[in-house]
Amino acid sequence: MAKLESKGVPRVHERIHVSSRCHLNFALHAAVDGLSEEELGTNQIGTTKKGVGPAYSTKAAREGLRIEDIYDESFEPRLRLLAEGYRKRYGQLLKYSVEDEIQRLRVYKEKLRPYIIDAVEYMQVKQKENCSVLVEGCQALSMTGSSAKLKTPLTALVLDVDYGSYPNVIGVVKAYNKMVLRYSHAVNYYDSVNLTKLDVLDTLPTIRVAVAYITADGEKLTMFPAGVRILDKCTVEYVDFQGWQSSTKGARTWSDLPPQAQKYIEFIESSIGVKIAYIGTGPDREDMIVRE
After folding, report:
1. What is the pTM of this model?
2. Would you say 79 and 65 are in contact if contact means Cβ atoms under 8 Å apart?
3. In what order do the strands lie in the sheet with 235-242?
4. In whole angstroms, how far apart are CA 254 and each of 23, 134, 250, 277?
5. Parallel, antiparallel, or unpaired for β 220-221 and 206-214?
6. Are 257 and 289 in contact (CB under 8 A)?
7. In this predicted model, what pLDDT tens digit does every residue of 237-267 receive, in sequence order?
């Protein structure tokens, strides 16, 4: 930040943000990166030994730690556990102190706090405002989402499992996963949605739809939280719909659905801002309503 300011870049602290979902590349990863290269001998990859490969590996293995994790009480034990796993493999060859890293992060995390945002929600807002956004990511370590239908100009997006560019994206979701669907659309930019298993809801007198999460300090979150530890402490805000309590199994046209079912589907559609083009109404391939 200081270097950018010294070069005259305006409003540095207002314009730079860090995703709460960004995975952390520790000094531990850099230490392991060097050892991994040495193990390959003459077949070395030629890595920069900055830790990118090992960090990506822990991310894929669901062992990685993200920005939002450093503010949770479980962070330090989890980092120690990660370091211990590498220690078992490399023994004394691993020149690394997990306690030194933890001490550094205790300082860094307070300096970092003002810049952290929910990048999924942020990108949705900037998309609507038609703003230009520069995205920086290390081999997609910090990127979680899709550029499939982004109208906002982005730089440094790559085609991979996290951040891709794909035409005609159809989201396939169950009829009872509304909050998950909203988040899923925010990172994948669906063209349309296939809403399955509507008939599973046929017998319910009331259908409760989660529309927000309320945090312990009263903050209202309309997007899926970055971490499950935040979610554990939230209460859910619901909107209740009258159930239709009649069979929709095998329905093939929109008019075959009860008015209550139509209202429920239209609410989901308006909430996520994507057309529900397909509605699954049973286990057979033909049990599908196709809306033009």
Report:
1. 0.64
2. yes
3. 220-221, 206-214, 235-242
4. 44, 43, 12, 11
5. antiparallel
6. yes
7. 999 999 999 999 999 999 999 999 999 999 9
